[in-house]
Amino acid sequence: MCVNTNLTEIKRTYDLIDNNFDAAYQKCNTDQQKQLVNLRDSARDAFWKSIAENLSDNHALIDKSLNDLKTTNDNIQAAVKSLQDISAFLNMVTQGVTLAAAVVTLAAA
Hints:
Helix content: over 70%
Structural class: mainly alpha
Mean pLDDT: 88
């Protein structure tokens, strides 16, 4: 479990993708499957980079980005229950991974 609040939502993004990977993958066409694999790998890389950097910056922009990431993670968690629209799900996941990577980059600067 992450104690650092910067790490918590970044790990949650990765866990949401990884824990629901198989179910989402089955709903994807070939191009979407590649996208999902890339998103999972990017989320994993962002998480491990955040651990390596020991992120702890509490700048206002990072706080806003973390709040946006939390909201996006909440949306991903709700969408993964049905996976009715896989394209919309992949768009949410893309947004989450982008925000996680942005937090890592900003906090490491």
